[in-house]
Design a protein that fits this description.
The complex is a heterodimer of chains A (489) and B (481).
Chain A: E1 10-11, H1 17-26, H2 30-37, E2 43-44, H3 51-60, E3 65-70, H4 73-87, E4 94-95, H5 100-105, H6 108-122, E5 126-131, H7 133-138, H8 142-151, E6 163-164, H9 173-189, E7 202-205, H10 212-225, E8 229-232, H11 256-260, E9 267-270, H12 277-286, E10 290-293, H13 300-314, H14 320-340, E11 344-348, H15 351-363, E12 367-373, H16 378-389, E13 398-401, H17 405-414, E14 419-422, H18 427-433, E15 437-439, H19 457-479
Parallel strand pairs in A: 3-4, 3-5, 5-6, 7-8, 7-9, 9-10, 11-12, 11-14, 12-13, 14-15
Helix pairs in contact in A: 2-17, 3-4, 3-9, 9-12, 14-19, 15-16, 17-18
Chain B: H1 13-24, H2 29-35, E1 39-41, H3 68-77, E2 83-88, H4 91-96, E3 118-119, H5 124-129, H6 132-145, E4 151-156, H7 158-163, H8 167-178, E5 182-185, H9 195-210, E6 214-215, E7 224-230, H10 236-246, E8 250-256, H11 261-265, E9 272-275, H12 278-292, E10 296-298, H13 303-315, H14 320-348, E11 352-355, H15 361-364, H16 366-371, E12 375-381, H17 386-392, E13 401-404, H18 408-418, E14 422-425, H19 427-435, E15 440-442, H20 454-470
Parallel strand pairs in B: 2-3, 2-4, 4-5, 7-8, 7-9, 9-10, 11-12, 11-14, 12-13, 14-15
Antiparallel strand pairs in B: 1-13
Helix pairs in contact in B: 1-18, 3-9, 6-8, 9-12, 10-20, 13-14, 14-20
Classes of the chains: A alpha/beta (489), B alpha/beta (481).
Chain lengths: 489, 481
């Protein structure tokens, strides 16, 4: 029976080119921007994904760990596809594939059957279970379900199976990362605290970070210190594994025994204060040794602070090699300052990254003009303002909390900038504004190998300076008229 | 359809069954029993389905399947370019399916096309108090911000159905209040067993809410057709449409690649429906046949052999004019396609291919590979039904392995034993096999290339296949030390 909406039958209409041009011009106006910013309910082109995606990323950071999505089958495929598209690497995960009957009877049977099959087929050393919407809404009791699975012998005695509740209708991918990381560390370290035992190691938490180059950079720096360390949730091998003719289901991750012994560490340091907030709060109460949370080391000063903190926590001096690296980074910045000084940027992304972009731009004498987060918080807003206020180049910058990329488009069209920093999803807004988009966030679907280029540490500074400055020079080469097209730049 | 039964040297029913049995060994008893009926050697002469299909996914096996929402948003509704498609529920589902399927669109983004991510971004309070009020508000906002949108679809995610929201009532009221079609689609991801039910539900919503609500403004002709089940991946619709126009047909509507809502709504006035992806749109073709007497023809625009066969099959439905046009078009393109074959066939002759894809490609592309001298040694679908496997049987060589909703474990086992030279599957499988040193092409997204349909598509397909199989990078996989 057609036409259940009671629509009047009309001829197929066409939109005239004039009408299209009128609306195209209108959406670039201040009037439209105001209408757009008045939105209460509709979210358009958000910067955040949902919790389970982050949970899966955390799970991939541990040795032999199989991420297990408890929920509908489609959820698992979405997370796997998204991670794979970004890294161009496999992302192995299984699912309890709940269907309509699960809504009636609960998901225990699916969970148990899924565990049994996954253990037999994929021989994990740990299964990290996290939830999508369905079990959260129907109220599945994972504590009980997993306890039952153990008593039935489905889960072998020695197999850790941590779980995290990660409903997609609260928080973001960053919250989910934190929840899964916490659950994994709780499960692995339970009962492992030994008085007076110290591993002598620095435990290191990166936060939700999809740049494998960053992980390798942290390791290189800690090795330069000669400081023993445990990098927790290390995805660098999982998502940047060698191609040598053999597929490895679990190519990397923090060794489980090492992660378990992290509770007896000398100190724990997180550089993702926003994306490891809950985990770090628990670590402070539970882990031995000193604890510190510092900002993501992007830019020279934040890298300085990072090195000084590592020196403090490990008792090792900052190595000469890193001091020289610092000098080279500053050299790169001064060499390139003329291409970036005074340039206006729009930046968006996860809280820790966003603060990093802003810190770096201010050091270069560039202005982070529009700073946007699609979830945000009062705490983040305050911290961003404090950072912007600390520099003359932060003057006039606007912080937009709880805004999306359709808001960003209005900002770019009505209050233009020279460039945008963010993930691939901003390409349409940047394209319409005719400015370059520097792809530094997650996901990056439309460029290759970006996840291998570190943005943290002094090496990160050099990488960003080089890329940004040369892009502006390329732009001049592409747009200067013949009289101004010259050998020198 | 192929009249002769194809064979592959070294592959027998026994050898394939033994391979399947070995792959099943690792399963626990219950899992093995569930998976066994989904794996079988092809019986090419029987033209019947050799495997069971469209059953619940076995938990924990690492299935590649998506969900009903994916079938609705990613396949049927999402590609309609001039509508706002609201992913109604939490932020994730719409975010993951944003731009990832490559259904290209005409028009201007945010003005006349809406290839964007619209969501109600459900929070805890929406779960507790329901999301209907929020939905009513956001529909109004979409209407105001996007005045040239021809309609809005509301695509439900899991929570909407579970908490008992009534999006149908909200949509009906909004349709009147906003003077705009607002179409509710109850395509929650937990419904059914795969994307497939999402296709069906979406077809049903087109039937219930859209078809017959518009009439074409221009007078009808005997050559009016609709192109159904082409989603314009990498520009496929544009290639197919150009070819159909070249033989003298009027393509009045495209379902739904680069689709226009109002033209879809007036499709009950065409003379013939041409359907490419049978799985996702056979439902509406059957409805239009029964209700309006519009026949439909299944066709295949992959590779010159099938294109030629399909064009002649289509021409049979029309007069001499179209039939002579078709012969002219075939005569025009045959030598061009032969040049493509002459270039690539020597580089690809005898190479083995394994496929594991979605709606139509596991059978429709078989002949295109054969045009290049390649042989398909295994094929299967994520979400097919019995009738898809019936149609697959004669296309595939006899005794080759057929797999339904294959797990990653099974695919790995089959690849390990069959040692194909190319695998055509999806993004989740791609790097698994590339790590093994095996060439791979994404056969859902054309690996960001395309089009592959029609005469414009075949040279690109051939180039891409050659590029994958013969890339010198594969020679570097084994290190000398």
């Amino acid at each position: 029976m057609a036409n259940n909406l009671g629509l009047t039958v009309k001829p197929v209409s066409t939109t005239s080119p004039e009408e299209e041009a009128r609306v195209a011009a209108w959406i670039d106006t201040v009037e439209y921007k105001e209408k757009n910013f008045a939105r209460q309910a509709l979210v358009i082109n958000p910067v955040h994904a949902c919790q389970p995606l982050g949970a899966e990323l955390a799970a991939h950071g541990f040795e032999g760990t199989l991420p297990f999505v408890h929920g509908s089958q489609g959820c698992a495929s979405y997370y796997r596809s998204t991670l794979t598209r970004h890294f161009r690497e496999p992302a192995a995960a299984v699912c309890s594939s709940m269907t309509e009957d699960g809504a009636v009877f609960g998901g225990q049977n699916n969970l148990h059957e899924g565990l049994e099959n996954a253990i037999a087929l994929y021989h994990p050393k740990m299964i990290a279970v996290f939830t999508s919407c369905m079990p959260e809404i129907i109220g599945d009791d994972l504590t009980a379900y997993l306890k039952n699975a153990r008593s039935k012998g489905i889960i072998p005695k020695a197999l850790p199976v941590p779980f995290a509740n990660t409903p997609s209708f609260s928080g973001t991918h960053v919250t989910g990362y934190d929840a899964m990381l916490l659950a994994i560390l709780q499960a692995l370290t339970e009962g492992k605290r030994v008085e007076d035992r110290c591993t002598g190691k620095l435990n290191f938490l990166t936060g939700f970070d999809t740049n494998t180059g960053n992980y390798r950079e942290y390791k290189r720096i800690l090795e330069a210190f000669g400081a023993p360390y445990t990098l927790l949730a290390d995805i660098s091998e999982t998502f940047d594994s060698p191609l040598d003719g053999t597929y490895r289901l679990y190519p990397g991750g923090t060794p489980l025994a090492e992660a378990a012994d992290a509770i007896n560490g000398k100190a724990t340091l997180t550089v993702g204060p926003y994306s490891t907030a809950k985990t770090f709060a628990w670590v402070k109460d539970t882990f031995a040794g000193a604890h510190a949370a510092i900002p993501l080391p992007m830019g020279v000063q934040r890298t300085d602070a990072f090195l000084m903190k590592v020196a403090e926590l490990t008792g090792k001096p900052i190595p000469e090699s890193l001091k020289a690296e610092r000098g080279r980074a500053v050299d790169a910045m001064t060499d390139a300052h003329q291409y970036l000084h005074g340039k206006k940027f729009a930046v968006y992304g996860d809280p820790d990254l966003l603060l990093g972009y802003v810190a770096f731009l201010l050091e270069m004498g560039a202005t982070p003009w529009h700073v946007l987060s699609s979830k945000g918080s009062k705490k983040l807003e305050k911290e961003l303002h404090a950072l912007l206020d600390s520099s003359p180049y932060g003057k006039g910058a606007q912080v937009h909390m709880g805004r999306d990329l359709w808001h960003l488009r209005s900002l770019l069209m009505t209050d233009p900038v020279d460039a945008v920093i963010g993930d691939t999803h901003g390409k349409f807004a940047a394209h319409d504004a005719k400015v370059p988009l520097f792809r530094y966030g997650f996901p990056i679907y439309d460029r290759v190998g970006r996840h291998r280029i570190p943005l943290v540490g002094y090496a990160g500074v050099v990488n960003m300076v080089t890329e940004l400055a040369n892009a502006f020079i390329d732009l001049r080469d592409a747009t200067d008229d013949d009289r101004h097209f010259e050998m020198m730049r | 359809m192929s009249s002769t039964v194809k064979k592959v040297e070294g592959i027998t029913k026994e050898s394939t069954q033994q391979m399947i049995d070995r792959a099943l060994e690792a399963y626990p008893e219950k899992g093995r029993q569930k998976r066994a009926p989904h794996l079988a050697p092809n019986d090419a002469s029987a033209c019947s389905a050799c495997v069971k299909s469209n059953r619940k996914t076995v938990p924990g096996v690492m299935s590649a399947r998506g969900c009903a929402f994916a079938g609705a948003k990613g396949v049927v509704w999402g590609p309609i370019r001039d509508m706002v498609h609201v992913s109604h529920g939490p932020v994730g589902c719409g975010w993951y399916s944003w731009g990832t399927r490559r259904n290209l669109v005409s028009g201007k983004n945010g003005v006349t096309n809406f290839a964007m991510q619209f969501t109600s971004d459900f929070q805890e309070k929406d779960i507790v108090y329901g999301g209907d009020k929020k939905l009513a508000v956001l529909l109004k906002e979409a209407r105001e911000l996007f005045p040239l949108a021809k309609g809005i679809s509301v695509l439900s995610e899991c929570p909407v159905g579970l908490i008992g929201d009534d999006i149908n009532a909200v949509a009906k009221k909004a349709t009147t209040d906003l003077d705009l079609p607002v179409i509710p689609c109850n395509c929650e991801g937990f419904r059914g067993v795969s994307q497939s039910l999402g296709h069906h539900i979406s077809n049903d919503t087109i039937r219930d809410y859209l078809i017959e609500t518009r009439e074409f403004a221009e007078p009808a002709t005997p050559y009016d057709i609709a192109l159904i089940g082409d989603y314009n991946i990498g520009g496929d619709v544009w290639s197919a449409k150009a070819l159909l126009e070249e033989i003298g047909l009027n393509v009045k509507a495209t379902w739904t690649g680069d689709g226009e809502m109002e033209r879809i709504a007036a499709t009950h006035r065409v003379k013939l429906n041409l359907i490419h992806c049978y799985r996702s749109m056979n439902y509406m073709c059957k409805v239009m046949e029964e209700k309006y007497g519009i026949p439909f023809v299944e066709f295949n625009f992959f590779g010159p052999t099938k294109i030629k066969e399909s064009l002649r099959k289509i021409a049979e439905r029309f007069d001499d004019r179209i039939q002579s046009n078709v012969e002219k078009v075939i005569a025009k393109y045959d030598p061009l396609m032969q040049q493509v074959i002459d270039t690539y066939r020597p580089r690809l002759e005898g190479k083995k291919v394994m496929l594991y894809v979605g709606g139509l490609r596991p059978r429709h592309t078989v002949s295109a590979y054969e045009d290049l001298g390649m042989v398909v040694v295994g094929s299967g679908y994520e979400f097919a039904h019995h009738d898809d496997y019936e149609r697959t049987s004669p296309e595939m060589p006899d005794a080759t392995v057929i797999y339904d909703d294959a797990s990653e474990h099974e695919l790995e086992q089959f690849v390990d034993e069959l040692k194909p030279d190319l695998i055509g599957s999806g993004i989740k499988e791609k790097y698994v096999f590339q790590k093994m040193g095996l060439p791979f092409r994404q056969m859902h997204s054309w690996d960001y290339s395309g089009p592959y349909h029609g005469y414009q598509g075949f040279p690109i397909f051939a180039r891409d296949v050659d590029m994958a199989v013969n890339s010198p990078t594969w020679k570097l996989v084994k290190s000398p030390f």
